[in-house]
Write a structure and sequence with these properties.
Elements: E1 2-9, E2 15-22, E3 27-33, H1 36-56, E4 66-70
Parallel strand pairs: 1-4
Antiparallel strand pairs: 1-2, 2-3
Length: 71
């Protein structure tokens, strides 16, 4: 499964990465940073946090989930 992640730049110059909420996944993800690279890295931290949360709750995290970043 591919999830679209949109990276945008705010008027203040910071970047944001937003993944839409997917009903079949029951979550959405977010990241931010001073550069596109920082933003993607922060987004990946959020992904890892979500994986840990799923593990704590005994839920499977979709292993086939891929992220497609668009600007």
């Amino acid at each position: 499964m591919k999830a679209n992640v949109i990276i945008s730049r705010s008027k203040g110059g910071r970047y944001q990465a937003n993944m839409d909420y997917y009903e079949q996944l029951n979550f959405g993800l977010f990241g931010e940073g001073d550069s596109v690279e920082d933003t993607i890295a922060d987004f990946n931290v959020c992904v890892n946090d979500m994986k840990a949360l799923f593990a704590d709750e005994g839920k499977p995290f979709p292993n086939d989930l891929e992220f497609e970043f668009t600007y």
